[in-house]
C-alpha cells in the first residue's frame, strides 16, 4: 500500500508497507514463496515525489505528435489501405492519426507502483490483474490470433541491401524527410517498408533512442508481405517488458529516466479502467469506430502532482472484479 503524506514544511513524501522482516510471519505473502535472491514487491521506505519534476523527459519516448507524420501516413494509406486491411493492421494504423502523444504522468506512475515484477501483474486489493488480450484487440483493432512472430522464424525475403533506406537518417523527422515520396508518384516497396519501420519504432513500440533501428526491418517486411502474424500478442508482450523496466527504474537512486515501450497503450487502457470511477471527461468523439481512438480523448490534460494521491486511492478502491 502506498501512503502519501505531507510534512509541516509542506514537502510531500510517501512510505510503503508492510516490509519483509520482523513482521514477515504476519504480513508474509502466502501465495508466492519467499525468494532471498529478489527484492520483495515492496522495498522502498520513502518515495520522493520530486520525480514528477520533469515528466516530459521521463516519458519522452511517447509517440510524436501526429502532425509530424500525417502527410506520409495519408500518402501511403491511399496506396496501401487494401493491403493493410488484408494484413489486419488497417484499423491499428489509424491510431497514429490521433493524440497518442498525450499522457498523464501521475496516472502512469501511480499504476506502475502497483506493478509486481514477480507476478507480472498489477497487484490491487481484489487480486492480480493485467490487460487481457481481448482488451488489446478492442483498443487497437488487432486480431487476437495469428502466427507467432520471432525474427529468426521469418526469412529475409526482400534483401535489406535491395531496399534504398537511408540508414544515416535515423531520427524520426530526418527519416520521414529522407523517405517521404514525391506527390503524384507511386509508393514503392522501399517507401512502404520504410514507413512501416518508422511506424513500428515511433508509434507502436516507441524506441528509447527516438530513432528508427534496423531490427524492425524483418517485422516491417513481414507486414509488407501480408503475413498473418499476431501483432497483438507481440504488443502485449512488449508492454509487459516495458512495465518491468519502468517498475525497476522507479526505485533507482537517480530516479526514472526515459521510460520507453508501448506505455501509450497503458495510458489508453487506464483511461478505460478509470473512466467511470474518476468520471474522466471526453472531448468530442473522433470519427472512428476504433475504441482506442475514443480513449485518446479521455487522457486528462491537467498534470497536477495532487492527482497522484487521487489515482492511488482509485487503484486501492478496486476491492472486487467487475
Automatic annotation (TrEMBL):
<protein>
    <recommendedName>
        <fullName>Aminotransferase-like plant mobile domain-containing protein</fullName>
    </recommendedName>
</protein>
<feature type="domain" description="Aminotransferase-like plant mobile">
    <location>
        <begin position="88"/>
        <end position="274"/>
    </location>
</feature>
<dbReference type="InterPro" id="IPR044824">
    <property type="entry name" value="MAIN-like"/>
</dbReference>
<dbReference type="InterPro" id="IPR019557">
    <property type="entry name" value="AminoTfrase-like_pln_mobile"/>
</dbReference>
<dbReference type="Pfam" id="PF10536">
    <property type="entry name" value="PMD"/>
</dbReference>
<dbReference type="GO" id="GO:0010073">
    <property type="term" value="P:meristem maintenance"/>
</dbReference>
Amino acid at each position: 500500500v502506498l501512503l502519501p503524506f505531507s510534512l509541516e514544511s509542506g514537502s510531500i513524501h510517501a512510505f510503503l508497507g508492510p516490509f519483509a522482516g520482523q513482521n514477515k510471519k504476519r504480513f508474509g505473502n502466502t501465495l508466492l514463496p519467499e525468494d532471498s535472491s529478489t527484492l520483495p514487491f515492496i522495498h522502498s521506505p520513502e518515495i520522493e515525489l520530486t520525480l514528477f519534476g520533469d515528466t516530459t523527459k521521463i516519458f519522452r519516448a511517447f509517440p510524436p505528435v501526429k502532425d509530424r507524420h500525417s502527410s506520409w501516413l495519408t500518402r501511403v494509406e491511399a496506396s496501401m489501405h487494401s493491403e493493410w486491411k488484408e494484413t489486419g493492421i488497417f484499423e491499428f494504423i489509424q491510431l497514429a492519426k490521433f493524440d497518442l502523444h498525450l499522457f498523464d504522468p501521475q496516472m502512469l506512475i501511480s499504476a506502475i507502483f502497483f506493478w509486481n515484477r514477480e507476478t507480472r501483474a498489477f497487484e490491487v486489493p481484489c487480486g492480480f490483474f493485467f490487460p487481457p488480450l481481448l482488451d488489446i484487440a478492442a483498443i487497437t483493432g488487432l486480431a487476437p490470433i495469428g502466427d507467432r512472430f520471432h525474427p529468426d522464424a521469418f526469412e529475409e525475403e526482400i534483401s535489406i541491401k535491395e531496399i534504398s533506406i537511408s540508414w544515416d537518417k535515423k531520427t524520426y523527422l530526418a527519416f520521414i524527410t529522407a523517405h517521404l515520396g514525391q506527390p503524384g508518384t507511386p509508393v514503392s516497396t522501399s517507401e512502404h517498408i520504410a514507413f512501416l519501420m518508422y511506424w513500428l519504432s515511433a508509434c507502436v513500440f516507441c524506441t528509447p533512442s527516438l530513432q528508427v533501428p534496423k531490427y524492425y526491418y524483418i517485422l516491417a517486411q513481414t507486414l509488407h508481405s501480408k503475413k498473418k502474424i499476431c501483432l497483438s500478442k507481440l504488443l502485449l508482450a512488449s508492454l509487459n517488458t516495458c512495465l518491468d523496466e519502468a517498475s525497476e527504474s522507479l526505485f533507482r537512486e537517480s530516479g526514472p529516466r526515459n521510460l520507453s515501450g508501448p506505455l501509450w497503450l497503458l495510458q489508453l487502457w487506464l483511461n478505460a479502467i478509470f473512466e467511470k470511477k474518476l468520471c474522466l471527461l471526453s472531448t468530442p468523439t473522433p470519427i472512428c469506430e476504433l475504441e482506442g481512438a475514443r480513449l485518446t480523448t479521455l487522457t486528462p490534460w491537467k498534470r497536477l502532482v495532487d492527482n497522484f494521491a487521487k489515482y492511488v486511492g482509485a487503484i486501492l478502491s478496486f476491492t472486487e472484479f467487475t
